[in-house]
Design a protein that fits this description.
The structure is a homodimer. Chain A folds into two domains: about 5-180 and about 225-290 and about 335-355, Malate/L-lactate/L-sulpholactate dehydrogenase, NADPH binding domain (Ribosomal Protein S8, Chain: A, domain 1, 2-Layer Sandwich); about 180-220, 2-Layer Sandwich (Wheat Germ Agglutinin (Isolectin 2), domain 1), CATH 3.30.60.50. In chain A, about 35% of the residues lie in helices and about 15% in strands. Chain A contains ten helices and twelve strands. Chain A has helices at about 5-20, 25-40, 50-60, 90-105, 120-125, 185-195, 235-250, 290-305, 325-335, 340-355; strands at about 5, 70-75, 80, 110-115, 135-140, 160-165, 175, 200-205, 210, 220, 275-285, 335-340. In chain A, the strands form three sheets. Chain A has a seven-stranded mixed beta sheet. The first copy, chain A, has a three-stranded antiparallel beta sheet with strand order 9-8-10, with no helix packed on it. In chain A, a hairpin with a 5-residue loop joins strand 8 (about 200-205) and strand 9 (about 210). At the A-B interface, strand 3, strand 4, strand 6, strand 7 and helix 7 of A face strand 3, strand 4, strand 6, strand 7 and helix 7 of B.
């Protein structure tokens, strides 16, 4: 049975934990917001469930709680940011704000980031653009769990792409997707249940399709969106590769099989070509293209027309990207965030370690 | 039996056809180059096979052979271009060049285009960035053939995304993909063969999975990359939607079910909210992020490492996006472009119409 906890109560706890790690007050609030965004939006794999993981990375000195984040190269519309091994949860909003400032000045801003760490959910950062009447784009690479088409070797992370687009009277369009058939968090849910995965999600260590949700632990790999060649896995592979290149190669971060692993106990890959994990952020001012009111009117029309697309079943209308997460957020802001027992125990252990009461 | 024809011979013929339509000499060459790029790269559905389609659009005055293409709104890093109903084959390189000029000036350039037509293959335009040491990005919307997840209505085009990235000693990385399980051209090949499609490519008019490759003619729809909900079709739908928004909504073109159809005999959708078809172009200068030589060195490393990823079968190494098309181009530049009988007959009819000898 899950325990429900009010997000405001969780917020105070997480802030205290980040402060205890040595984060500044501003950074602790930023990092907490990103984790809470994940839990509120129903991306449970990327919320407080990961707090202990961030702490362990800090304990082995792979996360710097007091980074000096800085722009190392820039033009009017672009920049590379060095995250100084900071929490991705802090580096990401810093970089997104630079993209937004550049978009204010010259129409769009594009920031590639090296020397960072896991940044939580991409949507949390992309949504920063919305209140500025901008489109936000966010990508990140991640440690290799995904085999390219025709390979049995893990070469790419689940490398998500998020695009957030403001609308007028309608809520914003927010697409946030791993470039794999299923995100690793979905697989973890099946692992906890002891259930099989659908074919097309994973392969075993020899590259054969497999349904055992634990196949990754035995040398298997997640599959790119598409699942197999016949169903377009080469497209999912290409999209994951683009994310890797924009995030890793363009910034001087690590890429491909060299991206640092999230679990602190996993050894770093040898012969790393770059620094830390890489991200990519973009912001485009709507009125750098069209009158904002015209765009919003058309965006409302887009959303309404797609919502009214003829459904296959009367019970399941067509969704707009972002709908399920927004519904979840409304429900959880009211009723609280459900924590599974293992996560609750994890938080209690963290509380004891830092002498903070949950 | 296919007829082989040297691309240089085909080139002269196509240029003459576009000149006969009234295109300027420059425009005729541009349009021809894009069609030839498709045939050389093996994207047979988007090459000369479409020439008669463009002519029919011109005959019904949906294509303007002498457009006054112009920038209608801009900032230092962005622009909206009105294609004046010109051939997309001409409007697209015009817009891409504006993106490139803006990237030269301020690091990146992003151009959304309205009032255009079908632009051939996206890669042809994205590759223009490569010789400038830039990353090129190209998207376009297209007439609705694709049903969003949970819908039986056609709402999106096959909406491709292309990303071209320069490397050093290695050939460039060129990903060019429809955001559907399979592009319509792949389906047309099965239709000609009378073969079935794999499950996950199409659905029938009630939204049920179907293998009959002719299902589209009976009210069916192509499926977003992923194929079904369990295999991530909501991600393919979201990606196709992003392409539609960037190309159509951001520029003031049509979007969703309102995008003009390619076949001239198909009536235009009613109550169109915008002008023509929409495209989106991006160019990012490599040295707006990193020293170009450092980037190229890392890009070469990326490509080589992925090429060496452990294959599932020794007979099929891992491919880099762009590999198959480049191999095809080398072969066809040498041996000629194979034309199926129906396309050859089509070209002869065009030749007779304009009194041009093939």
């Amino acid at each position: 049975m899950d325990t429900l906890i009010q997000h405001t109560r969780l917020e105070q706890f997480i802030i205290q934990v980040f402060l205890a790690m040595g984060c500044s007050s501003d950074d602790a609030k930023l990092a907490t917001q990103t984790l809470l965004d994940a839990d509120l939006r129903g991306i449970d794999s990327h919320g407080v469930a990961r707090l202990s993981g961030y702490i362990r990375l800090w304990e082995v000195k792979r996360v710097n709680a007091t980074p000096v984040i800085r722009v190392v190269h820039e033009t009017p519309s672009t920049a590379v940011v060095d995250g100084d091994s900071g929490l991705g949860l802090v580096v990401a909003p810093y970089a997104m704000k630079i993209a937004i400032e550049k978009a204010k000045a010259v129409g769009s801003g594009w920031v590639s980031v090296c020397n960072s760490n896991h940044f939580g959910i991409a949507a949390s950062h992309a949504m920063l653009a919305l209140k500025e009447e901008m489109i936000g784009m966010v990508m990140t690479n991640a440690s290799a769990l995904v085999a390219p088409t025709f390979s049995k070797e893990r070469m790419l992370g689940t490398n998500p792409i998020c695009v957030a687009v403001p609308a007028g009277d309608e809520p914003p369009f927010i697409a946030d997707l791993a470039t794999t058939t299923a995100a690793n968090g979905k697989l973890e849910i099946l692992q906890r249940k002891g259930a099989d995965a659908p074919l097309g999600w994973i392969q075993d260590e020899e590259g054969s399709p497999i349904q055992n949700a634990h196949a990754l632990k035995n040398g298997g790999a997640l599959l790119p969106l598409g699942g197999d060649r016949e169903h377009g896995s080469h497209k999912g592979y290409a999209l994951g590769a683009v994310v890797d290149i924009f995030s890793g190669v363009l910034s001087g971060a690590n890429f491909g099989p060299w991206v640092p692993p999230f679990p602190a106990y996993v050894a770093m890959p040898e012969n790393q070509p770059g620094k830390g994990i890489g991200h990519f952020f973009g912001a485009m001012r709507i009125d750098a293209f069209r009158k904002s009111s015209d765009f919003k009117k058309d965006m409302d029309l887009w959303i309404r027309r797609f919502r009214e697309a003829t459904p296959i079943s009367k019970d399941q209308p067509v969704l707009i990207p972002g709908d399920p997460e927004r519904a979840c957020q409304l429900e959880r802001e009211k009723n609280g965030i459900p924590l599974v027992e293992s996560v609750l125990n994890d938080l209690h252990s963290i509380g004891e370690k830092f002498n903070i009461k949950l």
